[in-house]
Each structure stands twice: as structure tokens, then as C-alpha cells.
Records
---
Amino acid sequence: MTKRYKTLVKLWVANDEQLISATRTFLEEGMGAALGVLSETTAYAERLSTASSELLENARKFSPPQSLIGIEIGTNPKSLRLRIVNELAESPQEVLNCVKRQIKTIWAEADAKEAFRRRVKDSLSVPGSKSMLGYAKIRMETGAQIRARLTNLQKLEIAVWFWKTPEPPFVDSP
């Protein structure tokens, strides 16, 4: 597996609703146009838009106001990778454990559409719950793989991979 990624975007944005909205637009429109020009990554523009939108919204909701949210997009011959890094308003280890449980549950479901339906039911039945509907949407609409971890500074890092080959060369367990 090739591990080195050529960085296409690397930026930090303050956790402010307007700034996050502008960043989502940039990633959706700007990166979509840029990736559309690169023949090997044309198929990734829409999937990147979906994943970045969902992950930025999660980061905005669960980070302290005005904290910084990091975004990095990179490519190599086998994949396109999106990474979002953010501070957490709650206990980092508890949040990580919750996120990993949700990821494991969503990606363990044989049918991505069924995993999404279950998250919708969960979110409707328990108001205010952290049903992680965005992760289920990412799986259903992008077919990406996902990993969650804490950085050395106790920030949450969510990485999503979009494979250029039909089958991923490895399965990264959350």
C-alpha cells in the first residue's frame, strides 16, 4: 500500500457557523471543480463533497465555539483521503469510544442503505441522540472507509478514504 499522499488542501478554520458554511461551499464547489479537471479523481468530487459536509457539520457541533477545525485532502495512486481534526467539548476518550462504536456498527451492517435507515429511525426515536446519521450517509453515498483516532494533542481525527481501485487494498478496522 502506498502511504504517501500529495496534499491538495490543508487548512484550519474557526468553529463559526458562517466560516464552516463557507468552507463547506469551497470544498463542494472549488474542490469539485478542481478534482473534475484531474482525470484520475473525477469520480471523487461528489463523494468528497458529501463526506466533507457531514464531517465538518459534526466537527462544528461537537467542538468548542471558535476552536480550530483542520481539513486536509490528499491523494496517492490508490486513494483520495479526507481528514478532519477538531477539539472536543467533551471528554476526548469518551467521544472517541462513542464514535468508534458507531462506525463499527454502521460499517458492520451488510447493506449500507439499511444502516442508514436504522440511523434515521434512531435519530427520530430519541430526540437529541448522537445517532451518527452523517457517518451512515457517508457510507451509503460514498462507499468510503473511515477511521477515528485521537491525535497526540487529544483532538479527534476522522479520516475517510475513497479508493481508486474496485476493492480497497486493506480493511482498516475502527
---
Amino acid sequence: MLNKKQTNSDRNCVTTYTSCIKYDGFDLPFLGIKNGDNMNAILCAISDKISEVSEAQDVKDINTSCLPTTPATPKTLLSYLQLIINKECTP
């Protein structure tokens, strides 16, 4: 990883626009990244996927009747996971 104190001139790099950098790796369909995409598109695809998996997921169809919930319990995947962990870890 690049030391934050290190500059481009320290590594003999040439500053360029990310829109000019083309990806030449294999396609990553789960991210929507294709060979030939520019770096801007790749950064957006990765950012979008991180946002997507970070958002609360719709869990309305999960049967949670055995979990100790209250009306104030958020109906998110993370809250249900925490309830399961609490239930399993309580002696």
C-alpha cells in the first residue's frame, strides 16, 4: 500500500485522469465491471455495491416469531443477526 507521505514524484508516476485509465482484467459481472471500462466506472461500480450491501435489506418475509423482538426492534438484517447472537450467547 502507498505510504500517504509518499508522493507521485517519489514513485516516478505521471498524474493522469482516472477517465483515461482502462481496466484490462477479466470481467466482474457481480460488480458490473467489464474489460475496457475506465477507472471512473470501476470506482462507481465498487462504491455502488458497497452502498447496496450496507443498506438495510428487506427482511419482511423472514419468520422471526422465535426471536425476542419488540415493536421498536428495527426490521433489518443486522438487527435480526444481533438478536440471534444475543440469544445464542446468553447463558
---
Amino acid sequence: MEKKFKKEIWIGVGAILGSIIIFLIASTFLSGRMAEMSQQISSARATIAKRAELLANLAEIKNTSAEAAAYQQKMNNLLPPQEQLLNFPQALSSLAAAHNVSFNFSFRGTPTLPQGSSAGIAVFSMDSSGSLDSLELFLNDIEVKATRFLISIDGFDLSQSGAGYALNIQGRAFFR
């Protein structure tokens, strides 16, 4: 009976130790698997947050696209079409006449056509003469006051010519 009792104790201790070993092996395996799943969940949450941000940005872009189209149209209206540049010398001539300034205008070279969002450019030169005050008012009207044409004056040369002054201007007119 004593042998049977010792045998049962050893079997019981073995079963307990075996259970503990199986539990440790299972918990180690499950712990690694849980860490892996935790990493996958964290990665999935980051992906979801990024996609939600992208969707919010897309919704904002869609909401403002109509407004942007209106501004694009207004910006296009600032620049005349290339054909309207033919009226540019006449507009300058009427300004020169209003200020009692003699005037000569010419386009130089071939215009650079618009590409993408860049405006087209037509280079011009202009000679005018008159009193210093008249030339100043004329230049102010061309450069500062609103006209139908958007121009850039790249350089000018002012010289005294007899009783008056001569003004030579080089510039660019922009078109769409």
C-alpha cells in the first residue's frame, strides 16, 4: 500500500509539473502571438488614421473646388487673349494723346506662347517724347493705373532732347 501511495504521489506530482510545464509553454506561445497581434492592430489603426486623414483632405478639396474654379476664371479674365494684344498699342496711344506725349510702339520678336499655368509673353519697345511732367503722368498711367493689359516694364531710358525729354521703354505684355 505504501508503494501504491508513493506511486500515486509521484504520478500526482508529475501531473502537476507536467501541467505547469504545458502551461508555461502555452503562455509563452500565446504571449508571442499576442504581441504579434498587438503590432498588427497598431499598424492597422495607423493605416485607418492615415486613410481617414486622406478622406478628410479629399472632402475638403471637393468642397473648395467650386470656389477654386471661380477664382481660376477670375484669374483668366485678368489676362487678355493673345488676339487682344493687337489693341494694346491703340490703348497706349490714347493714353499718350491724353498726356500730350508723342508715341511710337512696336512688338519685338515672336511671342512666347502660354504653357500650362504660365502666361504667354509678348516683348515690346516704346518710344515717347514730351515734357518731363507729361512723360511722368503717362508712365504712371501705363504702369500703375488699371488697364485691360497686364504688363511689366523691364527697363527704360530717359534723356533730354531739346526742350523736352525722350523716354524709351522695354517691357513685356502678358496674355493667355
---
Amino acid sequence: MKWLNKHIVVISFIWWLTQGTVLLLNEIRVCLERNYLDHFFLTISICLIITSCLLLIRTNKIVLSLSILLLLYSIFTLFAMTLLFFMEAHGHIFFNICISFVIPMINIFLSILLMLNARKEIKD
């Protein structure tokens, strides 16, 4: 657990950067296939990439505020993916469960760990 607390910022940076990049690449794929660009998901993916890069700034107050923002995003994602799961899950149930529940729960877990670590360092 000490190793995780020590490297939580780097782990979170990689995790959120990966999610933002995958979301951006998916939006580009949809734009090229359907000639339709959804500005909402494009904005979210760019904000995730920027937020993950801002996590590398070692100022604890910035990391704390970003972790709260990422926690709110994670809760929204869990809610949206749960609705999507119940409306659209027809086949590949294991894949749908991973996408709909496991990844948002990892998001929440990482956000809380990041928030607790930044809060602890501010107190010290």
C-alpha cells in the first residue's frame, strides 16, 4: 500500500491519459465513419487529457481539486454506464459488465486514493 500511495499520481496520470486518448480516438473513428462529430465527448476527452497532464504538477492543492473533479466525473460515468448497461446490454455480458461497472469503479477508487493522498500531504 505504501508503494501505491507513493506512486498514485503517476498511476492516475497514466490511467486518465489512457481513458482520454481512447475516448478521443473513438470520437475520431465515429467522425470518420459517420461524418458526425459529437462535441460533448470531444470536449470530455480533451479535458481528461489536460487534467491528466495537470496531475503531474506536484502542488497538492491542484492535485486535490483535480481529484475532486475526477471523482465527480467518475460518479457521473458510473451512473451513465449503468443506465446504458440496462438499456443496451444484449450480448457479450462479461465485456459489458467490465465496461459498465468495473472501469468506473476503478475510476472512483483512483480518485479517492488521489484525494486522500493529496489531503494527507497538505496536512503534513
